Amino acid sequence: MIELIMLAVIAIVGLTVFGGIIALILMYNNFIGMKNRIDNAWAQIDVQTKKRYDLIPNLVETIKGYAKHEKSVFENVTKARSAAMGAQNMADKAKSENMLTNTLKSLFAVAENYPDLKANQNFLMLQEELSGIESKIAYARQFYNDTVMRFNQATEMFPSNIVAGIFGFKAREYFQAAEAERKAVKVKF
Prior knowledge:
By secondary structure, this protein is mainly alpha-helical.
């Protein structure tokens, strides 16, 4: 009888340890999956911003033909594009991307002053393509932030926070909009 009880205790302890190991493996694999989704989401942002970088010189050259005296605007767009392309980490990338977005707004403001340019088919095509890319960038940033949120929750919530601590998984940074982009747009007639 005692042998049967000992055997039952050993079986229960064994099953508990085995269940704990399985839970640990599942949580670890979940962290790896989320980390890879974050890296993929960041890569998707890079893909879309690369398209934007490739499109900007064409857009600038098209507008330059009409607005020859707007040299500072073109220089600012070129500088912002170079800074965005050279950003090395997420914080610098977010800052430079926000700066590029602001300079593109000023570029389109210049374009508004040239009625012939606004009717130019090449300009319209480039403007539409850039608008589409901007939408894809916004979606990619949203997906990235959603993925980071899930990962960060897992690093903070019990019991997955224990696994995160053991294996060194740290909370990741969100992609945030620049302060200027958070302000309400004023429309005047």
